[in-house]
Specification:
two-stranded parallel ribbon, 2 domains
Length: 364
């Protein structure tokens, strides 16, 4: 008969020391490696902190103050001078409050959609239908606002719109493609496989090029679609193929007993998928799905190939095109990197919370 062992509660400091001994100082080789890596990180971190913080020029100090550093410190004055062009591209300066409001509204929609109280279909759909209409009105104008053509849109609003709608619209299409690839109907299965393999076999740049340039050649004379809309459709179709394979992996991971249980309850195909199979498959694939979403957010920088000025290109052009500030493009790229990191890190953290929240029934 086994005896129960008493539970020993360690102080936080003892747990930290135990973790360090077990993971970083468990052997002489690990100890030497840990010391060398920590020393390297400390040296590099100190040099970067000295360049980026201690010796840097902050605020609107002017280009003369940056030139006086002779490269010994960062010139964050370029961000203070060029932040409007970095964020909003070539959007008319007098109207740049509108893309700023659109970005705030779009971020608010994402935050609201992440709240559990808005997971009901009608609430979710209402938020996005109304919010999308307001964003389109702010960016494009009309009804009291000056018209701004999509050719003048750029910067962070374009990146967010392409990434957010490119993900939301691609997700249901990807789920349908995943179900079609596992369908028992040969025609549906063959079409789904052909689409997925064809799209996954070409780079996104090729799809954007086809949608923006080649597609227009096949349209009748006098008929054309907005360039931004064509790029958005291309991103949706491209992402759907990758989402389909992620969802298919989740479907294959479910045991056969789930299907048999649904059959025993007399559920039809669509009720089985919507009520039993897909909720479990999508929960399993949360990490992979978020990885696809983050890739989609960063891949929007490729739209410059079809002359759409995304955030990264707006940062580059706002600095490089100015002869006085062009030497401080590194600071501009670091600013862009920080913005990308904030959004990607937020998606990563939310996915971890969502995974824990949906797996509460599995915790002992």
């Amino acid at each position: 008969m086994s005896t129960l062992r008493p539970v020993v509660h360690r102080a936080p400091s003892e747990r930290v020391l135990a973790w360090l001994r077990a993971n970083l100082f468990s052997s002489p080789a690990n100890t030497v490696t840990t010391v060398l890596v920590v020393a390297l990180i400390a040296w590099l971190g100190g040099r970067f902190a000295e360049w980026a913080v201690l010796d840097a020029v902050w605020g609107k100090a002017g280009v003369a103050a940056c030139n006086a550093l002779a490269g010994e410190g960062a010139c964050w004055a370029v961000v203070a001078e060029k932040w409007r062009q970095m964020l909003f591209g070539i959007y008319p300066p007098a109207e740049q409050w509108r893309p700023a409001a659109a970005v705030v509204l779009l971020c608010a929609m994402l935050v609201v959609s992440a709240m559990r109280g808005f997971w009901r279909p009608w609430r979710f759909a209402g938020v996005w239908i109304v919010g999308t209409a307001i964003c389109a009105w702010l960016m494009g104008g009309g009804l009291g606002l000056a018209r701004v053509e999509t050719a003048q849109w750029g910067g962070l609003p374009i990146t967010l719109m392409l990434a957010v709608y490119g993900t939301f619209l691609a997700f249901p299409l990807g789920v349908l493609l995943a179900l079609g690839r596992r369908s028992q109907l040969p025609i549906i299965r063959s079409v789904s496989i052909a689409y997925i393999e064809l799209v996954r076999g070409v780079p996104l740049i090729t799809v954007l090029f086809m949608a923006s340039i080649m597609f227009a050649l096949f349209l009748p004379e006098g008929i054309s679609f907005d360039k931004l809309l064509r790029a958005q459709v291309a991103i949706v179709l491209f992402n759907a193929a990758y989402i389909a394979e992620v969802v298919r992996g989740g479907l294959q991971a479910l045991p056969r007993g789930q299907y048999e249980a649904a059959d025993a309850l007399g559920l039809g195909y669509w009720k089985t998928q919507l009520l039993v199979i897909l909720p479990q498959a999508l929960r399993i694939t949360i990490p992979a799905q978020v990885n696809s979403f983050i890739d989609n957010f960063k891949d929007t920088s490729l739209v410059i190939i079809v002359s759409i000025f995304d955030f990264l290109y707006a940062v580059k052009q706002s600095v490089v095109s100015d002869l006085d500030w062009r030497h401080y493009f590194i600071e501009g790229y670091l600013f862009a990197m920080a913005i990308y990191w904030v959004f990607c890190y937020a998606m990563s953290r939310y996915s971890q919370w969502l995974e824990r929240h949906l797996n509460r029934d599995r915790r002992s």
